[in-house]
Amino acid sequence: xxRIVMKFGGTSMAGIERIRSVAARVKREVEAGxxxxxxxxxxxxxxxxLVGFCREASALYDPREYDVVVSAGEQVTSGLLAIALQAIGxxxxxxxxxxxxxxxxxxxxxxxxxxxDTAALDASLSAGEVAVxxxxxxxxxxxxxxxxxxxxxxxxxxxxxxxxxxxxxxxYTDVDGVYTTDPRIVPRAxxxxxxxxxxxxxxxxxxxxxxxxxxxxxxxxxxVRVQVLSSFTGPDAPMADTLPGTMIVGExxxxxxxxxxxxxxxxxxxxxxxxxxxxxDKPGAVAAIFAPLADANINVDMIIQNIAHQAGQAGxxxxxxxxxxxxxxxxxxxxxxxxxxxxIGFAELVHDTRVAKISVVGVGMRSHAGVxxxxxxxxxxxxxxxxxxxxxxxxxSVLIHEDETELAVRVLHTAYGLDAEAA
Amino acid sequence: xxRIVMKFGGTSMAGIERIRSVAARVKREVEAGxxxxxxxxxxxxxxxxLVGFCREASALYDPREYDVVVSAGEQVTSGLLAIALQAIGxxxxxxxxxxxxxxxxxxxxxxxxxxxDTAALDASLSAGEVAVxxxxxxxxxxxxxxxxxxxxxxxxxxxxxxxxxxxxxxxYTDVDGVYTTDPRIVPRAxxxxxxxxxxxxxxxxxxxxxxxxxxxxxxxxxxVRVQVLSSFTGPDAPMADTLPGTMIVGExxxxxxxxxxxxxxxxxxxxxxxxxxxxxDKPGAVAAIFAPLADANINVDMIIQNIAHQAGQAGxxxxxxxxxxxxxxxxxxxxxxxxxxxxIGFAELVHDTRVAKISVVGVGMRSHAGVxxxxxxxxxxxxxxxxxxxxxxxxxSVLIHEDETELAVRVLHTAYGLDAEAA
Lengths: 423, 423
Known about the structure:
By secondary structure, chain A is of the alpha/beta class. Chain A has two domains: 3-254, Carbamate kinase, CATH 3.40.1160; 260-423, VC0802-like (2-Layer Sandwich). Chain A is built from 13 helices and 20 strands. The first copy, chain A, has helices spanning 16-31, 46-57, 63-70, 72-87, 119-126, 152-163, 197-205, 213-222, 285-295, 330-339, 341-344, 371-381, 405-415; strands at residues 3-8, 35-40, 92-94, 102-104, 113-116, 130-134, 137-139, 145-147, 168-173, 194-196, 226-230, 246-249, 264-268, 271-280, 303-305, 318-326, 348-352, 355-361, 388-392, 395-401. In chain A, the strands form five sheets. Chain A has an eight-stranded mixed beta sheet with strand order 3-6-2-1-9-11-12-10, sandwiched between helices. Chain A has a four-stranded antiparallel beta sheet with strand order 13-18-20-19, sandwiched between helices. In chain A, strands 15-16-14-17 form a four-stranded antiparallel beta sheet, with helices on one face.
């Protein structure tokens, strides 16, 4: 008898009619002979409402009390789903974070899951009950409620799947899977049947917002097979028979026939570019730039250092340094750098938010040379200027002008052979 | 250092502005040198919303899951009040029912409080923290959440006050105290400074809806001094300095100067009168009437048996039996009685919902004769017909026509010397 975890987001839990649809979907898995745990989010909008109350009560709210307040949203939906399951003849009970318990550290409002006790859960599943578990919550050692931070329900689902040895963890979302790229930009984008954890991490962190990144990292560490699939056939339609989604698995599981050099193309317009001109060309100069940013907890992404200006009568040699930071951190970055202008010794700080990062991702590039070269050639042929480049083992990213985002994604999608056959 | 419990209802918790007013009121008690526990209700309307979800999910909802859902309302307000207290410099923390814990039996959705562990609570209060405790909830032996039934937060407050040895339990409500009668009927009704537990029970059960009856019974049993006072000066005004309310205490605490024969006059229009005609006048006949009503869990209140019709040629002697039941149970009562017509042997069932029960209540009548007589005379002088009478040690009740309710209350209020001096 296989064990599976099913996770439903806030849109799927928004109101009793939708909760009933979820119950019907769960019943099908039970009738297929599975032992099922369901992890649920709060009703869409509810967590925002509760967070709003906390902020209104005090801008500097105590995160321990915040967790008491916001965890109530998932408590409500877990009880309601248990009732809806019982109403269609499926034995079910809710297990709150402190009841299982799901142990976490004491980082209130952004806790990390430690261990999950499974004795009671095992007994309940073996007795034929569906376990309904509120996502996003746990309990700290002292017995106080914790929450995992926004989007933490995906992580809860993967952690529960790992603890109970589930065959897979099905994440029902607003999208029906992971695509080769954003279908709003490329109508001929294809849904991927399989994708590796590493690729999913790269695709998620560069803009394909399907799963919380933390949950993918945990799934990789614990070897939990995750499936992303749609809870709706249309934006407001009740959940019908679900089409197969995308399986996120280890590289060894990817079927040979599925293997391609490039799995997907992501874009991210939330980067900002900063250039410091005439930084002295001497040891320690680059460290002087990035230390104040690290102190301000700002993640620097792409870094390029131009050819040095030659030393001469005008003084010692110097160089321009360009890098990107998250757009939301731009103002703080400028403050930090200007505050350190004396130590760094740059002439001018130039910034630009009208940039986009385009990434091609695929585990196949480990064994295929020429991926980066093909990317640069393709973009160059269309006159798209590359402002910065960064690479990892399974990803090549370039920074371009924001206005060229859609063009770049489309030509690359075609160039790497990702376009679906015309219907 | 005195310990007190403060309890705030849903109207006082309806929104952050009001929660801030509550926090300010709590701060005053802390600054007066008291150790304070606060028991809170859910935001006004929230419990109805959550109950509505449960009913929509299934008419026959599991009360264990219902308790998981509806207890979330008080969880939210307890966290928010703790945040609001901290924001004005008052150390505070929330203690959920399962955290203290507040042990209850396993009668989910209508649980009764057993014991309350006070070790953690004592430590917290002694450390100078305000303890914020959600009303209405507890935890059963197996570790599942329970709720006490609607209005249970008053009972929570009294139980917490008893457990922590509080000097008094202040219940902040929409009214500013207990009155000699309904001020909407008698503008010269007076607010009582003190009232005994027994009187409060009689006044509450016959219509003066201020406190949940169960909480008064518990206060009497545990000797908890309860004060009813207003959280508002006007229906929507923020809580200002609170006027003294009404203390509910043991009879021995009532000051001699306060003692009156009659404390208050209550009315209740929610009764229905049933008359069964020509019930055989023989042993066991009355038992045959009330057994089916008891089986249907219907509380019969006033009972009168008319003079028997004489036995003669028409058959054995017979009698008419009249009694009252709660108006909400009338239909079920008629069904039960008609179903037993064979055993009872009555001729006709006549019912009347246009009746009202008027009660005069006072511990003083124990030592004063003539209270009932004065009541009958006063009503008779105004031509008000009495349809039934019942008495207890501290109460005389009569059943009259509904249209005469206000007149009866006014003339009795004057006759027993309860009218306030004209201002």
